[in-house]
TrEMBL record:
<protein>
    <recommendedName>
        <fullName>NAD(P)-binding protein</fullName>
    </recommendedName>
</protein>
<dbReference type="InterPro" id="IPR036291">
    <property type="entry name" value="NAD(P)-bd_dom_sf"/>
</dbReference>
<dbReference type="GO" id="GO:0016491">
    <property type="term" value="F:oxidoreductase activity"/>
</dbReference>
<keyword id="KW-0560">Oxidoreductase</keyword>
<dbReference type="Pfam" id="PF00106">
    <property type="entry name" value="adh_short"/>
</dbReference>
<dbReference type="InterPro" id="IPR002347">
    <property type="entry name" value="SDR_fam"/>
</dbReference>
Amino acid sequence: MIMKEQFDLRNDLVDLRDKVIIVTGGNRGTGLATVKHLAQAGATVYMAARSESKALAAIDKLNEEGLQPGNGQVKYLKLDLSDPREAKTAANVFMEKEKRLDVLINNAAVLSGPFEKNADGLSIMVVVNYISPFVFTQTLLPVLTSTANEVGSDVRIVNLASIAHKFVPSASVKFTQIKDLNVEYRWHPLSGFMRYAHSKLLDILWTRALQKQFNSASPPIPIVAMAIHPGGVDTFSQNWPLPWFWKPIVALAINDPEHGSYTSVFAAAAKIVRDEKEKYKGVYLDNKPVGRIDVPSKAARDDQLADDLWSLTERLLREVGVKQ
């Protein structure tokens, strides 16, 4: 199958009726648009978010607008990624509600902010963007695996990364101790951006290691894990003075959330991924065109770094008392 230049939401998605999907951070921005598109394709979509009031308001708005043509449904799942223990609890709550999970989209992330540590001595950005999603996903593996072992299954894990990861100097990346996760980039004039870029590198390496785990299991687990770059998305111009003036100008450079969600939707439900599973296992997808397999940075392609990151993550979770 040849990749088309234009991604068609009506014709390029698999039938998601009777499928169950989780989208973290799904109450606003690209996450909300992703929830809408997947529900419109027929899925039951769990909007996983910290604020129940904001999530329920977002769900009410979707219902008011109608979820045609697929008539799927959207449900709320409380998820607080600021603490990996809460992430584990959320996963267990989900598994009490549902006996299947076809797609998990780890969309939620902290984009910027000062360097701060939590009570466990870990970078809050790294916890939200990587460690808690790692725990959430690992805890959900039993239901993901049981769904994947069904005849005709099409189970996927989608981790939102960013092209920003390419700004991290490959030579400086290592994962032997916790401080290698708590990189501050004090020397850099854009330290906040670099910390974000570093966290997205972690997500790509984690995706690589996760796919390796699936492939090497006996028997192999038929789950496709992908990391994606959704592209630049305008989630801010509405907050500027004179938004009616700035929004069309910003739109010349980056996508609105509606179109910014397309790479997530592609990874979650595109027919071509179902038809060519081996091709998409462990890949990094770009948004130009939507769903294009791209080559990440040298560090992001390093299998030893991926293994080291996995081992370090498991070790620190044991140290802080989060059972796997």
